[in-house]
Amino acid sequence: MSEMPKETKHLDEMTLLLYIERQLDRARGLEVSAHTQECDACRTLLRVLESESRLLTRAMLEEDEPLPSRLAQFQERARKSMQWIWGVIFGLAATGVYALYTTYIQPWQHQLEQAGFGGSNLLGLLIFQGAMWKGWQSMMTLLEVLAMVTLAGLGAMLFRRRIRRGAALALVFAGFCTVLALPTAVSATEHRGGQSPTVSKEETIKGDIYLTGERVRVEGTVNGDVIAAGKDIDIDGHVTGDVISAGRYLRIRGTVDGNIRSAGNTAVISGTLGKNITWFGDAVTVDATGKVGGGVTMFGGTLAMDGHLGRDILFYGDEVNVTGGVGGGIHQKGHSLIIGSSAQVDGPIRFEGDHPANVSPGAKLASPVEFRQMERRASYREGHYYVWQVIWAAAFILFGLVLFALMPKFSQEAVKSAEQYGATAGLGVLVLFGVPIAACIACVTVVGLFIGVSTLFLWYASLYFAQIIVGAVIGQWLMGRTSELWPLIGRMTVGLVIVRLCTTIPHVGGWVKFAAILWGIGAISLTFYRRFQPVIAPSVPSAPYAPPMPPNTTVGGALPA
Amino acid sequence: MSAPGMTKPTEAIARARAGDAEAWGQLYRDYAPAIFRFCRRALPTREDAEDATMEIFMKLKDKLVQYDATRSFSAWLYKVAANHCWDTLRRRRIRQDKETDDLENVPLEHPDPSQLDQLIEQRTSEEVRRALNKLGGRARMALVMRYYSDMSYDEIADALGVRRAFVGVVLLRARHELRQALEGNAALAAGGAS
């Protein structure tokens, strides 16, 4: 640069800027200094650039507006004072969980234990022991993986301050991979398909067998479980394990030593069942010749008990008709209970329904029927209703906190999506009504059963998540926007309290809740939709092009003018 | 550090680290005005700046353990603020691809010093602040980091995620944008006057 003729070659603006910013090395700086002493134009430009720097600094440092009152009042004390609110919320949520357990889960557990599911806790029973899901390996695996991921995520959250982020992630992934790499149990299984898959009379199957077809028949012996899917399923032989089935019609004329876990239209038990029946479907009939060693747990239409049952009946559905013997009690929530003259029930009978039980005078009952009128409306005038509302609000907030902490990006995107009112309303209607219909259709087919049930679970959970998203949006309206997690959770808390308050308004509350669910589900769906959209990569290079640097230059491009 | 009232509050920092709420309040009272002004200059709206200030101080609570007491606290605090503001702008996609393209071309103009001098001399601080609001996210961030918080080229490069060699280019480009915005303001003012 210094070799250039002075009258024609000026220093470029970049070099002069770097000079006044003291970013040039000493030699180059001396060159620039010498040049500007001789060149008027460059000296003037240098002076102007310095003036510009001063103007910038002055404009920026000038105290043109006072600290907003919102910031002046914001002190860490405010955050500290929130800690007891979180404590209260956690306490109330814990109370809610305990109440939920004692009101719903414990009686169920008790009934399930009596119905022969063993004496362990319900969570272990349902999920980890797999009593309910036995045979539904994919569901089991999914639940276990989800549980592991959740635990790993919570662990990482708890220890995030002590462990470096990379280390925490490595720990989580290592644990996750270890879980996935654990060898799965190997079992001897056989599969038979076709129009009429059959285990013939002479046959003895060692281990479990999978049978799929229009008409499934087991006439021989299976020393293991039978997992069957078909239109008509007949068990005329001997099964030493369980029968897990999905189909229209299930007939047990032979002997099953274990349990029946099934979903379908109708089951008729004329033979002998060693343990229990768990049935999701329309009708179960235990014929006069039928014997069931354990109990019946049923979610469906009608139960006709003409034979003998060793233990309890736990029934959620329409009607129970007992004319045979029941070794345990009856716990029913449904439309009607009919106990015929030939019936004998050795345990307590608790019936919650629309009308009192129809008990024949000749029936032998261990104790009178405890009848409770089914309550269909919440009592707005009772104080405990509002206490429960507070507890549920706390449980909602806790649920929201966990979801926001586990899925911060998704939650923030959903909150943002919620402000596109037209799209969320449209999608909300579609998903709120369309998904359960589609899931039920999927459940009709055997192959889609798992997908259908899983979708229903997710849809049901999203009804709650939707209200949380709406709460966060309302919180942002009131307290301003934020893109940070904890302030967003704070806004969600405030908004959710308002939403819950609105849902308690008599007559209107239900509509408010419906609207919130519709809106929130629309937002969640829109976020999902966007996530699955292909991302078009920008055409710009990922790193800026680096022009060649002249020697002895520390920064910028000291190129000749 | 150019910002006023930014001395090193060693004792307050140590106490705040130990969980002393009063010391934390003291730090907030001392530094919040400067950080708010930083955010006000860097972000598009006043509400954004208020939110960002609160979020920076919330973040600071966790980050305070990472502060190296041998270095300037205010420089460190501005670094945290700069990262936060730049993240905010980036998330909103205010940073545009065009700005990345600009880096490829080192501006080599030798502007007319007298015209430039006239432009700068006639402008008030208020006009400069208004013009700043019209700049792209990166340009504004670069100017604020350099001329408000006096951050070094290394720190600016680190915050913006560009190579150190390009910081000068970014700053010069930002000045050019600013001049255009100032000229636009002047033209608008002239048009409005006529």
What oligomeric arrangement do these chains adopt? heterodimer
**Biggest chain-to-chain interface with counts:** A-B, 62 and 68 residues
Q: What is the beta-strand fraction of chain B?
A: under 5%
Count of DSSP E strands of chain A? 23
What is the CATH superfamily classification of the largest domain in chain B? Winged helix-like DNA-binding domain superfamily/Winged helix DNA-binding domain
**Share of helical residues of chain A:** 40-55%
Count the DSSP helices of chain A. 14
Rounded to an integer in angstroms, the radius of gyration calculated over CA atoms of chain B is 18 Å
Count of individual domains of chain B: 2
Indicate the CATH architecture of the largest domain in chain B: Orthogonal Bundle
Please give the alpha-carbon distance between the first and last residues of chain A: 8 Å
Which class of secondary structure composition applies to the elements of chain B? mainly alpha
Please indicate the percent range of residues of chain A in DSSP E strands (runs of 2 or more): 15-25%
Mean pLDDT of chain B: 80
Overall geometry of chain A: elongated
**Inertia-based shape of chain B:** elongated
First-residue to last-residue Cα separation of chain B:
43 Å
